[in-house]
Amino acid sequence: MKTNKVAAMLGVSCTLLIGNLTGQASALELHTGENSGAYYNEFCPTIKSGLTEKKIPVECKTSNGSLNNLDLVLENPTHFGLAQYDIFSHRHSNKEKQHPFTPIRDDIGQECLFLVTKNKLMKSYGDIVASAPYMNFILPPENSGHAGTFKYLQKIDPEGLGKANNVSHAPNTQDAITSALAQEDNVTLFVQFPDPENEFFQLVNKNGGHFVPVISQEIMAQATNGRKVYSAQETDVANPKWLSSGKKVITACTPIVLFTGNPQRVTDDALKADHNKAISALQTTPVDKLRPTKGWFSKLWTSTKAVSAKSVEGLVSATEKAKKASSPYLTKAKEKTKEAMEAAKPTYEKAKEKTKEAIEAAKPTYEKAKEKTKEAIEAAKPTYEKAKEATKSAYEKAKELGGKAMEKTKDMMENSPETAKEPVPETVPSQ
Fold first, then answer.
1. Highest-pLDDT range among 213-227, 314-328, 381-395, 417-431
2. Which pLDDT tens digit goes with each residue over 57-105?
3. Which of 71, 247, 326, 359 has a CA between 20 and 30 Å from the CA of residue 273?
4. Alpha-carbon distance 305 to 246, whole Å?
5. Could you tell me whether strands 28-31 and 58-61 are parallel, antiparallel, or unpaired per DSSP bridges?
């Protein structure tokens, strides 16, 4: 591992040397996500194009997403990465002294949190939180940004979502959504750009799922270095159809952060100068040159709308009330039990009356049988005593006869000593 790190640093140093000799800066290595994702296909090419005028080449690197990007930059502070701001904030806040990361931009886009279930009782985030111990949370892969966000939500609300016991991970986000919508007791969470044409949204709508707003007091209070981790946004989750309007949901959204390692961790002076130059170029480039605007991104920035403080306050209040109330599952169970008890009450009372009548009807027969049993016992008593006496007499007589037989045997043995002393003849075996 150390050999690989040294080789990597030598490679960067060689790139820097060649770049300095040709008058160009070394390539900025930007860690994005999977080769099918927006970070790699949309954001990185736009950033690359935006830095062309400043003659800073950008090399787009695939990765496993936000969590992996943080690890890669932690390993090499001169590299750059894209990540969800909540994931970045979670990792950033875990460091006590010198922060290993440097945030550069957090205005190039945002992704939103979408909580999905088939259970219509789950109307607010508070319902989900109150029911957390009883529901099955089926999430995307454990090393994904989606799962990282879920862990972050559990951390900031240990007495709420933190009590979720049944948490599992699907091989991918599509499987997580499909599995979660197979039963009413399931729920999933994914983090995505609010694009109703995206396959994730299509899966939810196709399988009869519904979106639960992800808004709570704990969520809206999160901040790192004075920057809010989440903001409430009204987002599109289904496009309008011929006879129906589109669907919207108000949920928490988190910025996309463009970050790098702390320059103080770079020891080589020339490498540090190059690193600082790249940071400055990214900080001073207009946001329009770093944000994708082609294809579906052209309408993405208008598909979300900030929610007023009053509306957010109302949603937070609804969540808090639901959290303090019983779980919808328990409330429903109590109601059903009460209804069943009320419905069964007439039958129970009728059965009770019938039982009482049967007991009263059987009482004379029982008393009569009791009397007959008593009479039978009295009638059998003389016979029993007579049999007892006869048994005693027979026993005494047998005892007397046994004694006499023993006396005779003794006399015979004493009067015939020679016979008693003769050896017993051996038995000849048959041929």
1. 213-227
2. 999 999 999 999 999 999 999 999 999 999 998 876 555 556 889 999 9
3. 71
4. 15
5. parallel
pLDDT in tens, 5-38: 444 444 444 444 334 434 455 789 999 999 988 9
Unique residue bearing structure tokens 């080769």? 35
The one-letter amino acid at 149 = T
Residues forming beta bridges with residue 261, ordered by sequence position: 101
Structure tokens at 149: 């966000």
State the angle between helix axes of 85-93 and 145-156 in degrees (0 to 180), rounded to the nearest 10: 60
- Average pLDDT (373-385) is 79
**H or E stretch at 236:** strand 231-238
Cα–Cα dist 358/349, whole Å: 14
Q: Identify residue 128 by its one-letter amino acid code.
A: I
Nearest CA among 224, 136, 152 for reference residue 185 = 136
Least confident of 77-81, 328-332, 422-426: 422-426
Secondary structure (3-state) at 72: helix
State in Å, rounded, how far the first CA of the chain is from the last one.
Answer: 95
Quote the CA–CA distance of 160 and 22 in Å, as a whole number: 58
| 238 token code pair | 């289904």
Report pLDDT for 352.
74
Residues near 35 by beta carbon (within 8 Å), at least 6 away in sequence: 41, 62
Tokens 């140093």 -> residue: 13
Rg (CA), the chain: 44
**Secondary structure class of 246 (helix, strand, coil):** coil
pLDDT tens per residue across span 179-225: 999 999 999 999 999 888 889 999 999 999 999 999 999 999 999 87
**C-alpha–C-alpha distance, residues 12 and 272, integer Å:** 12
Dist CA 418 CA 86 (whole Å): 118
pLDDT of the residue at 219: 95
Closest residue by Cα to residue 253 from 271, 275, 236: 236
Copy the structure tokens of residue 117. 């279930």
Cα maximum dimension of the chain? 144
Residues 6+ apart with CB under 8 A from 137: 150, 164, 166, 167, 168, 186, 187, 188, 189
Are 63 and 36 contacting, i.e. CB atoms less than 8 angstroms apart?
Answer: no
Across the strands, what pairs with 327? none
